[in-house]
Structures are given as structure tokens and as C-alpha cells.
Amino acid sequence: MKHRRFSAHAVDQRNALTPDALTMMDTIARTGSFAAAARELGKVPSALTYSVRQLEDALDVLLFDRRSRQAKLTAAGEELVSEGRRLLAEMDAVANRVRRVSTGWEAQLTIAIDGVINRPTVLELCEAFYALRPPGHEASGPGTRLRLRTEVLAGTWEALISGQADLAVGVPFETAPATGIECQPLGELNFVFAMAPHHPLAALPGPLSDADIVHHRAVAVADSAQRLSPMTVNLLPGQDVLTVPTMQAKIEAQLRGLGCGFLPEPLVCDLVRAGRLVVQSVQRPRRNAKLGYAWRTASVSAPRKAPQGLALQWWLSQLQSPATRRALLQRASGMQGLHTDVE
């Protein structure tokens, strides 16, 4: 029976915390008196006083200090007003997002980005997206929440195939896309074999053979795929390996002389120029990484082609620009000329 009484009381509390009640509390606190709040809300002061007492009874707290002639909030009242304002703002935001979804703008767009992609360029694209003022949303923009996630190698494909991402940038382009996935080329990324100046391989005459390299530890970035078969790139059989979680961690490890390995040239060219990394030529044939971008067009549960949301359409239109694709594969200093279509 106690459980039932507790549940009934909890329901009464929830029923009491209506948008009208929260708005009333906010208005009283903002105007400083019941009379001024009643005028603003179009009510008589006695009706407002009655509503406040009902709210206090439902919550079993005092919201106003009765010893003061003014509408002075108690600590509980201040907390209710503060949280009430947050809830009212969130209600407005939900209503706006629902309205935007009805016009074709997604509530959220998740983009999986490989660790070799230039982050400043991605953030510049985010800035351009937030600056959009489509018809009907001139005041606040499209309202789609962007979520960026970093993946490595096959992890970019897995995020897309599993539905955890709507768009993947930097996928291995030579990998065949799964059913319901469309893929377009992003470009080629040049890798260089590098190590710290004090690393033993830095002093050897090049080009280095696999026999020279195999006796020295390699630094590798772990493939972020959990279910797909992880990819292994440029590692020799029997070679010691230090595995790190990100490309930035790989660069830092090689700067410390903890190992050697291939690094994206655009990300390390400034370090090479400054003498903090040494680039060595190798005997094995060099192959640039061919990268692409991909998006879901259907799902297993809905095999027919799904309509694209307006946010995804905008990002795909940016990726069609050769200047944007180049900038995504360049370092920050090579970002001039990034093309964005801002409406």
C-alpha cells in the first residue's frame, strides 16, 4: 500500500509540473510580484495565489517566503524556477526540431571521419552548415544536430553499415561497398616512411629494404572496426608493433623514437621541414591511399532506396566540389580555396 501511495504522489507531482505552472513561476520570479505577474498573464492575483498554493501542496514544499511582502522565492522555489526555465527551453527546442524534421531536415546527422582527414577543414564545413538559413528557418538555421566520430580504416565502413553513421568520410575506396551503400572517390593521400632523427633507421643510406625495417618496431593505428575484419597496412611479418588508438598518437610516438612507419605526408610535412621527423625512401613500391566518402541509401529492414534528408544532401553537395575534397586531404595551411555553398 505504501508503494501505491508513493506512486500516486509521484504522478500528482508530475501532473502539477505543467508548462503553464512553470511559466507562472517564471513570470512571478521575473516581475517580482504576484500583481505584476497576474497583469502579464491576464489573470487576477487571487487566481495566481491559488495556483501557487496548489503547486506547493502537490510538491509538498514552500515556494515563496510568506514573511516577505514581495514575491521572494525560497531555495526550493529558486530551484524550481531555474529547472523550469531549462525545461521550457527544451520543450521549445523539441517542438522546433519536430517542425524541422517535418520540412525534411534531419534531427541529427552523424558523420564518421577517418583519422587521416583534415580536421580544420571538417570544422570549417560544420561552420558553413550552421550558417545556413534555409526558407522557414532564417532565425536559427536548419537545426540538425551534427555528431562527428573518429574511425580508423575498416571502422569507417562499419560505422556506416551498422547504421551508427549517416555519412563516412575517408573510407578505403578500393573496398567494395555493401548493399545499400553508395561510394564516391575523395582522392589519393600520399604516405611517407618517417622516424625521429635519433632513430637508428634515420642514419642508414636509403632506400631501405624490408630486411632493414623488420628489425625495428613499427607504430600502427588500431583499426576501429569491432565486427568487420580489421585491416592491417604496411606491417612486416615478425615485426614488433606498438599499437596506438589515433593517427595523432602515432605521430607523437614516432616523434619520440618509439618506432617507425608510414605517415600521411600532409599531416607531417611541417614536422619534416622543422627536422623533427626524417623521411627515408624505401625499396618496396609506394602506393598512395585511395580514399572515398560513402553514405547509406537503404537498410536491411527497408531495402528500397531511402529519401535523403536535406542535411545529408548539403554535405554531399559540398563533397562534390574538387576544392573541398582536396582540402579534406591537406594540412591546415593548405585550406585556402575551400568551397562551400552557403544559402
Automatic annotation (TrEMBL):
PROSITE patterns named in the record: HTH_LYSR (PS50931)
Phosphoprotein found in the keyword field: no
Annotated SUPFAM superfamilies: Periplasmic binding protein-like II (SSF53850), Winged helix' DNA-binding domain (SSF46785)
Pfam families, alphabetized: HTH_1, LysR_substrate
Domain HTH lysR-type: 17-74
Keyword list, A-Z: DNA-binding, Transcription, Transcription regulation
Coiled-coil segments on the chain, per record: none
InterPro entries: LysR_HTH_N (IPR000847), LysR_subst-bd (IPR005119), WH-like_DNA-bd_sf (IPR036388), WH_DNA-bd_sf (IPR036390)
Record has Transcription regulation as a keyword: yes
Family: Belongs to the LysR transcriptional regulatory family.
Name used for this protein in its record: LysR family transcriptional regulator
